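Components:
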Amino acid sequence: GENVEQHPSTLSVQEGDSAVIKCTYSDSASNYFPWYKQELGKRPQLIIDIRSNVGEKKDQRIAVTLNKTAKHFSLHITETQPEDSAVYFCAASYGDGNKLVFGAGTILRVKS
Amino acid sequence: GAGVSQSPRYKVAKRGQDVALRCDPISGHVSLFWYQQALGQGPEFLTYFQNEAQLDKSGLPSDRFFAERPEGSVSTLKIQRTQQEDSAVYLCASSLSATGLELFGQGTRLTVV
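Structure:
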């Protein structure tokens, strides 16, 4: 089955700096890669996603890149703000119906 | 409704008790997923419905876990004879299509004592 590894497990950055979180996946058939932000005690919120026919996608301060050959994808947050502090999860689809396998999460702390 | 709604938000069950967790997906969403999220970990897939059909239940950890979506909208996850290891947040997600983006509910935090 699919396996997703996520690094780093914690990340501290200064406000205004960039943050990068990286994930690798094992199943070459995976074709959908969402990123979720989860604040303490709240639901995972979809912040950006990318499909395997695209190499990069950007939405304001957030961008995701995908390297299908290497089977890794990354989340880039620029000009970080304190409200970006949360746990970020990457995920990869597998099998039928878009089931998701999640990474273990990255705790992002933005220091002001 | 505006989003995926789950109830109850919190449930404390005595070991051995049966529980039922409810999920109201976004209206019109065909696909519905249940995930289990242990403390400090990412969500783990439990089961998946397309309309009323349960197409995949490979993630259900034991035969004590049962899910249904009889009319293709509301879904119920039932856990029989709860054990302490069942303590987790149970998340429901729905998507408009089989390949659409998944939107999560706020989850039900189950604590088995």
